[in-house]
Amino acid sequence: MLKIAVIGDPIEHSLSPIVHGAALSALGIDYEYERTRVKKGGLSDYIEYAKKNGICGFNLTMPHKVDVIPYLSEVDESGCVFDSVNTVCIKDSRLYGYNTDGVGYKLSLKRCGYTFDKSRVVILGAGGVVRTLAITAAMEGAESICILNRTKSRGEEVCEIVAQKTNIKIDCGNFLTSELEKRCSSADIVINATPLGMGGIDEDFASFDFLDGISKGALVSDLIYNPYETSLLKEAKIRGLKTQNGLGMLIYQALVADEYYLGQKIDMEEIYDSVEQAARCEMNI
Ligand code: NAP
Questions:
Q1: For an engineered disulfide with 116, which of 67, 142, 178, 277 has Cβ 3.0 to 4.6 Å away?
Q2: Per-residue pLDDT tens for 178-199?
Q3: Exposed/middle/buried for residue 228 (C-beta within 10 Å: 0-12, 13-18, 19+)
Q4: Cα(90) to centroid of ligand 1, in Å?
């Protein structure tokens, strides 16, 4: 029996149990999946519990992705590059850390026929996920990256970190409509990594006019998956642009984590649809 878990705080609304459950069921794996609220500072106790109770791996979300690093015997390249870990495997009481967010997003791009290679990428937002996306884009051969954020200094911080780790041409700007219009007009991939348009959040983009200047072959990608189609994606579609929501990233990062837990490759495309259906059913979308 494969015993795995997800920990974080808050954790009640995590979709991890559904996504991993659907994947492992589709693969015919006998599993148990626990969802455990672990507050900041509670990692040490949780790790003891996990070792004693035969848990062979766990996913981590806020606020543990960085705090877990000192507990790990080894961090693979992905965890080192992003300075954060979202997947831990326990083997012989030793902990091994990985980060599957970047590869998860990369695989979701591939599923809709895009790649970062030689692309001009514009990312809206400069929060936790953006550093991972920007480093992934740089490592995958993006031509340039532009970070547009409400608080410009946070965009500058991301630029500095990415420039230290890669040779990419990266710069940043503010989040005013005029700046969005100017920067997005020369983008091949525009990624929304702000919560604008998310279910339960009242705020949305002040204007979608910036979509008018985006060239027809470009992709507008929203990391939000609830609603399934945000106003941003609806407006992009109306303008004939290709769109993608955040469900693909969520599913692929989980499937890559499952490969680490199982110690074997998974035929992801074979099970993708059933996992997506389970996630959509859970969220009523
Ligand atoms: P975060 O660390 O909280 O960062 C949020 C970013 O959004 C910040 O840059 C913030 O700007 C900006 N922002 C917030 N409210 C805004 C507003 N009203 N107008 C303009 N900008 C605003 O969040 P995160 O962890 O990076 O996640 C970002 C988004 O990605 C969330 O929607 C999250 O759900 C989604 N996500 C999806 C997946 C997936 O698997 N699909 C994975 C991770 C994250 P300031 O710096 O000015 O505050």
A1: 142
A2: 999 999 999 999 999 999 999 9
A3: middle
A4: 31
Judge residue 253's burial from the number of C-beta atoms within 10 Å of its C-beta, 0-12 exposed, 13-18 middle, 19 or more buried. Answer: buried
By alpha-carbon position, which residue is closest to atom 20 of ligand 1?
150
3-state secondary structure of 284: coil
Specify the pLDDT at position 75. Answer: 96
What are the pLDDT digits (tens) for 31-58?
999 999 999 999 999 999 999 999 999 9
Quickly state the pLDDT bin for 265 (edges 50, 70, 90).
very high
Among candidates 124, 10, 25, 135, which has minimal Cα distance to 79? 135
Q: 146 near 171, Cβ under 8 Å?
A: yes
Question: What is the spatial distance between Cα 89 and Cα 74, in angstroms, rounded to a whole number?
Answer: 10
Residue from 223, 233, 253, 285 whose mutation best tests the ligand 1 pocket (most atoms within 8 A of CB): 223
**pLDDT tens digit sequence for 68-81:** 999 999 999 998 99
Q: Which amino acid is at 127?
A: G
* Residue 88, C-beta contacts closer than 8 angstroms, at least 6 positions apart: 57, 58, 59, 60, 68, 72, 95, 96, 97, 98
- Percent of the chain whose predicted confidence (pLDDT) is above 70: 100
Q: Which of 65, 152, 165, 234 is catalytic?
A: 65
Tell me how many degrees the CA angle 192-211-101 measures, rounded to the nearest 5. Answer: 20
